[in-house]
Amino acid sequence: MKKLLCCLLLCISAPLFAETSTPSTSTDEAIKTQPTQVKLETNLGNIVIQLDPENAPVSAANFLSYAQSGFYDGTVFHRVINGFMIQGGGFGTDMSKKTTQPAIRNESDNGLKNRTGTIAMARTNAPHSATAQFFINVNNNANLDYASGRWGYAVFGEVIEGMHLINQIKQVPTTSRNGYRDVPVDPIVILKATTQP
To answer: C-alpha angle with apex 22: 151 to 94, nearest 5 degrees?
Structure first.
């Protein structure tokens, strides 16, 4: 029941946290020669993400592009729900929404599952509305996976270092701020996102 409620919350409140625009196909190009890891340096420590460009080429290239451009620098994990996920990539420390690139195609039908430690694209209720925001699963959230006739949330990588920080973040106290719920009381800031081989 708790998982169902969390899924509904993601679907209901996601429009507050993700931009809606026409999907872009510009990130469809393979990124096999590009870095496949992104390090998120936060005010609590470092998190390293292993991207999966083979199974999620659009989402992985999209995330990599935002990281390389410095877009994520100074953003926060603005939504934390213990037992569900932690979400970031769209708001500054003052909870101002950042302007993004066009939305991308939903790749949730790629066979990757929303399991603990995986990273996926956040979106609105519109299937192909993901832009910059992402979330890291802190539980096995099968209800977010693609199913026949129902779009899910596209997984494009996993945490390979810093899972202890994810487990720390998921337990922080949260509040409502500027009309948004589940916002950490003390900001959890992505100081810098850098790529590595």
So the answer is: 90
Residue-by-residue DSSP string for the chain: -HHHHHHHHHHHHHHHHS---PPB-GGGS--TTS--EEEEEETTEEEEEEE-TTT-HHHHHHHHHHHHHTTTTTEEEEEEETTTEEEEEEEETT-PBPP-PPPB---GGGS----TTEEEE---SSTT---S-EEEESS--GGGS-BTTB----EEEEEEE-HHHHHHHTTS-EEEETTEEEEESS--EEEEEEEE-
- Superfamily name and number for 2-19+33-196: Cyclophilin-like (2.40.100.10)
Euclidean distance between CA atoms 7 and 65, whole angstroms: 28
Q: Give residue 7's pLDDT.
A: 46
| pLDDT confidence of residue 137 | 98
CA distance 107 to 166: 24
Strand pairing class (189-196; 75-81): antiparallel
Q: What's the predicted TM-score (pTM) here?
A: 0.85
Q: What distance in Å separates the CA atoms of residue 26 and residue 58, rounded to the nearest whole number?
A: 8
pLDDT mean over 103-118: 98
Residue 116 tokens read as 């603990």
Give the up-direction half-sphere exposure of residue 167: CA atoms within 13 A in the CB hemisphere.
5
Task: From residue 58, give the alpha-carbon distance in Å to each of 7, 9, 140.
Answer: 24, 26, 23
Q: Where are the domains of the chain?
A: 2-19+33-196
